[in-house]
Structure to design on (322 residues):
């Protein structure tokens, strides 16, 4: 049930996988949302948002804004109570990682947070990543020698080696610098690989493409560290609702999840799908998620995350049922 509130939340990147779920949950709780997209005329990317808006009229307004244009976010954040910055490129194949990944991540964060500072916003939440906590190759051991925590930083990813990880690390460091400069409270959400139900029929999100390949039997590869998009979105909202929320929050299941575990879950729900195949792997814990558990009170089990994702992808026609 909606909690009626007059509070206004500015959210960037609302057509994205995480941003869309953030908007959905904000609207359901009664917030007024000002969301940014690159183009309102691109119906394939905004139709699911218009559907949400139709269900809750008057609560969602879309603005066009370019991450690379300083000043584009000034109107969006003016008069808002909070700013949630979810927009950032997420892909790994590019011939120009500086232009395609690092510049949009760093300059986008700079432009959005400068706008928030000028508008006098008191609290900002930034979607960072576990990529800013450690490199993809785990080249640095945890600072406590056991599990990775919010105290760890990725200091080894490079433009040539791991440009996405580098982009998230640099963008988060800029965010912390700007929070000090402007004097607003900053909370970062640092999820591992995000799965869970989809709201859009598009198949361009990296995790959606991965799950599509698994369901179609084209791969047995999945990230070992996973979390649920609903928990990630809920963390953003808890970060504006809980005054004690501060600093970084890694959103993750505590243990590695082998792809065979995911396939076993999917086979039980979709026994007719003979294409599913996975592989065993290490399921030992590698991340301390206690701070996220304190903020959220609990996480969706992996079984719900994966089944709900597959079901919604089938319902929206992203993948054909077997």
């Amino acid at each position: 049930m909606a909690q009626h509130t007059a509070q206004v939340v500015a959210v960037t990147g609302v057509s994205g996988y995480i941003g869309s779920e953030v908007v959905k949950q904000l609207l359901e709780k009664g917030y007024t949302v000002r969301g940014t997209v690159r183009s309102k005329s691109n119906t394939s990317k905004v139709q699911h948002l218009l559907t949400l808006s139709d269900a809750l009229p008057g609560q969602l307004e879309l603005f066009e804004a370019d991450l690379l244009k300083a000043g584009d976010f000034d109107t969006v954040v003016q008069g808002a109570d909070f700013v949630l910055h979810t927009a950032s490129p997420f892909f790994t194949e590019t011939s120009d990682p500086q232009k395609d990944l690092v510049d949009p991540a760093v300059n986008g964060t700079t432009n959005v947070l400068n706008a928030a500072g000028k508008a006098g916003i008191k609290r900002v939440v930034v979607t960072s990543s576990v990529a800013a906590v450690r490199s993809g190759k785990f080249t640095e051991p945890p600072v406590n020698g056991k599990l990775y925590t919010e105290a760890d930083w990725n200091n080894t990813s490079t433009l040539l080696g791991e440009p996405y990880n580098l982009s998230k690390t640099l963008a988060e460091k800029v965010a912390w610098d700007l929070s000090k400069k402007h004097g607003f409270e900053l909370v970062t959400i640092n999820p591992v690989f995000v799965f869970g139900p989809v709201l859009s029929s598009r198949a361009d999100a990296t995790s959606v493409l991965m799950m599509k390949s698994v369901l179609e039997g084209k791969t047995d590869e999945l990230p070992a560290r996973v979390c649920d998009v609903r928990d990630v979105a809920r963390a953003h909202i808890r970060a504006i609702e809980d005054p004690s929320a501060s600093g970084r929050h890694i959103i993750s299941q505590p243990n590695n999840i082998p792809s065979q575990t995911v396939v076993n879950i999917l086979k039980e729900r979709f026994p007719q799908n003979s294409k599913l195949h996975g592989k065993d792997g290490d399921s030992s814990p590698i991340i301390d998620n206690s701070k996220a558990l304190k903020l959220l009170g609990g996480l969706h089990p992996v079984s719900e995350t994966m089944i709900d994702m597959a079901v919604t992808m089938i319902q929206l026609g992203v993948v054909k049922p077997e």
User: Anything to note?
Assistant: Strands lie at 8-12, 32-37, 60-64, 82-85, 123-127, 185-191, 193-195, 226-228, 247-251.
